[in-house]
Amino acid sequence: MGIGDKIQNKAQEASGKAKEAIGDATNNEQLQAEGVKDQAAAKAKQAGEHVKDAAKDVKDDLS
């Protein structure tokens, strides 16, 4: 996983947390749901990148 991808994923996750918190504070269910969705998307991307990294490590170990 490149450093740029890590930063982008963390930024998306943080933005999602902020949206969720603002949605909670303002009783805006749509904004809260959007925040939850953004967090889930960021975490899914991070999981995919971790799988890629692990596969690369296995490949490197076998070489």
UniProtKB/TrEMBL annotation:
Signal peptide: none
Pfam family membership, one: CsbD
Region (Disordered): 1-63
Compositionally biased spans, kind Basic and acidic residues: 46-63
Xref: InterPro entries: CsbD, YjbJ_sf
Residue ranges occupied by any CsbD-like domain in the UniProt entry: 5-57
Domain of life: Bacteria
Coiled coil: none
Protein family (similarity comment): Belongs to the UPF0337 (CsbD) family.
Protein name: CsbD-like protein
Source organism per UniProt: Glutamicibacter mysorens
Lineage, highest ranks first: Bacteria, Bacillati, Actinomycetota, Actinomycetes, Micrococcales
